[in-house]
Amino acid sequence: MRCLTDVNVQAVVDEEANEESRGHAATCERCRARVDERRRQVNALSSQVEAEGTPSPAFEARLRHAMTTGRDVRGSTVLRPSAARSSWGRAGWISALATAGAVALIVFMLLPRLGAPTTLSANQILGRSLQTLTSGSGVERLEYEVTMDGMTAGPVVVRQVIDRNNPQRYKIESYTADGEIRTAISQDPQSQRRSQLIRVDGTNYIVRVGAIHNPVLSLPQMAQAIVETSIGLMQAKSDQQLTVQDGPDGRRYIIEIPPVMPASAATTLDIFGARAVISGEDFRIQEFEATGTLLKQPFSVSVKLRTQQYLGGAMPSFEIVPGPGDVVLEGIAGDDPVTELLTTVLRELGRARGR
Description:
Number of strands: 12
Mean pLDDT: 77
Helix content: 25-40%
Shape: elongated
Strand order of the largest sheet: 7-8-9-10-11-1-2-3-4-5-6-12
Largest sheet: 12 strands, mixed
Order of helices and strands: HHHHHHEEEEEEHEEEEEEH
Oligomer: single chain
Strand content: 25-35%
Structural class: alpha+beta
Number of helices: 8
Low-confidence stretches: 67-118
């Protein structure tokens, strides 16, 4: 094989080269040195770009002007051909070869930060968002806003903590828009405890159960499964519309499926229309809206992610902590949280009548 071109060298550095190019770079001393040098340049420029932050609008405008104007361009690098000349001479070729690396670095490192068009398709973006959904580990804390037609009078704030290494270990709390807690449920197989909170007439009632038989299905995991299925259905649609937005917080991909009402409802889950806003940095879903049917029942849901973080250090408590004025009831472990809640409440009512 001949020695690598500049494009081949860049592909090796980006770990996108084919097996032949990688093999040549490993055995050819000259090409290996070029790859090492390009890798040092990429790392240096990447560090510089990160240190400088987002390029200023003035700099972006000058660079875009340099790429699109028809005038002669001054400086050591250009991103378009200059006007043809009858003879360049040796100095011209040397200058072009010397600046090829800088041009490649600008193309591969700087232009994405300036909003250059993406080469990712809607399907690829949705696929990467699925990878992000399923690849987390450790304890994750999320806060998001949920609106479901027919189930919530308005937006509900949900705060969730889940151990991704043990998804049956979690705590979910829902709050009204003004910050008042509505419901909560927690489960910790390690301590064999489960607890629930429900607010009635301004009072929080907490049912705590110990020595649970078997941890029940993880509610966060079930919700994630529905989102994963919805994303898969969006991938299967042929009328995806992709929009790329670049703003102060970085790049966002907006993928929309125009609403279409099918002739009949699917057996389990079907999407009639959907919209997903996905971060260009980590492909995390920032917003998700969908209409469709779930178990042949119509639904409409809107979810907006507020915050997300993985917690390090000490493990947080998965117990619902009572506050002043809360009523705490000790229950007996049952087969599921609903049975535990009803059994505990009915038992307390029976005791109250016997007094």
